[in-house]
Amino acid sequence: MASRILLRTCKTIQLARINVPMRLPQRALAAGKGIPTDEEQAAGLERRILQSLKKGKDPYSIFKPKHYAGTRADPHIVPSTQNKRIVGCLCEEDNTQIVWFWVHEGRPQRCPSCGSHYQLIHHDLPH
User: Fold this and answer.
1) What residues does Zn(2+) bind to (predicted)?
2) Which of 10, 47, 80, 94 minimizes the number of CB atoms within 10 Å of its CB?
3) Structural domain count of the chain
C-alpha cells in the first residue's frame, strides 16, 4: 500500500514538472534582449576606446601605421603628447645599428645618416 502511494506521488510530480514552463534567469539574458555585447557592458576607459574605434580613430596607435615616403613633401609622421620626441631610424633594411635623434614640433627634420624626413604631430590621448 505504501509503495502505491509513493508511485502515485512520483507520477504526479513528474507530470507537474512536464507541464510547467521553464523560466529563464533574468540576470543572464538582460530582460529578454539577449546576451549584452561588448559595447553595452564596457565602462570607463574601455568604453571610450570602443567609441573612438567606432568613429574610425586610432586612440593608442594600435593599428599598423600608414606607409610614408619619407621625403620632405611626405614625411614619416611621429605622434607625441609632448613638443619633442626621440626617434630611432634604421637607415638600411639589413642595418644592425639604430640612428637616434630628436624630432621637434614644427617643420619636418632629416635623419642625420640617411636623409629621411620625420615630422612630429601632436597626439591627444582619449582619457
Assistant:
1) 89, 91, 111, 114
2) 94
3) 2
Are 6 and 50 members of one domain? Answer: yes
In a domain, 34, yes or no: yes
Residues 18 and 50 in one domain: yes
Domain hosting residue 33, numbered range: 2-54
Residue 62 has what pLDDT?
Answer: 74
111 assigned ligand-binding residue: yes
Residue 89, annotated as binding a ligand? yes
10 annotated as belonging to a binding site for a ligand: no
Q: Burial of 110 by CB count in 10 Å (0-12 exposed, 13-18 middle, 19+ buried)?
A: middle
Pairwise CA distance, residues 17 & 19, whole Å: 6
CATH code of 115's domain = 2.60.11.10
pLDDT digits (tens, 9 = 90+) for 91-111: 888 888 999 999 999 989 999
Nearest in space to 79 (alpha carbons), one of 125, 120, 110, 108: 120
- The annotation status of 91 as a binding-site residue, yes or no, is yes
Give per-residue pLDDT as tens, 41-61.
899 888 888 888 888 888 777
Is pTM beyond 0.85 here? Answer: no
